[in-house]
Amino acid sequence: MTAVGLPWERLEGKVQPWHRDRLAAVYVRQSTAGQVRDHQESTRLQYALVERAVALGWPPARVLVIDEDLGHSASGIDARPGFQRLVSEVGLDHVGIVLGIEMSRLARSGREWHQLLELCALAGSLLGDPDGVYDPSDHNDRLLLGLKGTISGATRGRTKRVNSPVEVRC
């Protein structure tokens, strides 16, 4: 008879040896060259996710940094070769974990986000950010990731000026 771990025991054990046999993919992105220039702390934090991968057990040589989309504003997968590369690597079962500074910001739309979640679930890839590690094939993690994506999408409006220095989101 196989012992089933208790839910709180599984929290520490999401990363399995077979995940570490694959790559850890760190996706680095900022929309504009101005953001890269003016928000260097964000860029630094994103590259620091390499250290997070190492802390989770990946050797540095097995951490793939995908930063082709750094400083490029684009919507849709075709205009973001780095995101397209990430999706391809996950789909080819090369990736054990995808790390991003804010999971729901990996994709530009809710549709892309949920497609990435589904692909990671099918491939057995985990998702990780500074807050935790998520298994998109686990019901509770999928629910949390879905909520993060929905909230992010709701706050990702365009900012307009309306004859005052006050910015309005719409």
In short:
By secondary structure, the chain is α/β, with parallel strands linked by helices. The chain is built from 8 helices and 7 strands, in the order H-H-E-H-H-H-E-H-E-H-E-E-H-E-E.
What features would you describe in this structure?
The strands form 2 sheets. A 5-stranded mixed β-sheet has the order 2-1-3-4-5, sandwiched between helices. It has a two-stranded antiparallel sheet with strand order 6-7. The chain starts with 6 loop residues before the first helix and ends with a strand. The protein is 43% helix and 16% strand. It has a single domain, classed as 3-Layer(aba) Sandwich (Rossmann fold). With 170 residues, it is α/β, with parallel strands linked by helices. It has 8 helices and 7 strands. The chain is globular.
Label the structural class.
alpha/beta
Summarize the helix and strand pattern as letters.
HHEHHHEHEHEEHEE
What number of structural domains do the residues give? 1
Give the end-to-end Cα distance, rounded to a whole number of Å.
57 Å
Tally of helical runs: 8
CATH architecture: 3-Layer(aba) Sandwich
Global geometry: globular
Cα gyration radius (Å) = 17 Å
What is the CATH superfamily classification? Resolvase, N-terminal catalytic domain
Largest sheet: 5 strands, mixed
CATH topology: Rossmann fold
**β-sheet strand percentage:** 15-25%
Mean pLDDT: 79
Number of distinct beta strands: 7
Top CATH class:
Alpha Beta
Helix coverage percent of residues?
A: 40-55%
